[in-house]
Amino acid sequence: MATKKILLVDDTKLFLELEKNFLKLSPVRIFTASSGEEALEIARNEHPDLIFMDIHMPGMGGIACCREVKSDPELRTIPVVMVSSCGKEEDLEQCRQAGCDGFLTKPVDRRLFLEKARTYLNTIERRGVRIPYTTEVSCKVDGYALPAVSADLSIGGAYLATDRPVTENTELTLAFTLHEPEETAIASKGRVAWINSGNNRRKPSLPAGFGVEFIELPEYAGAAVRAFVESRKPSG
Question: Which domain holds residue 90?
Answer without folding.
Answer: 4-120
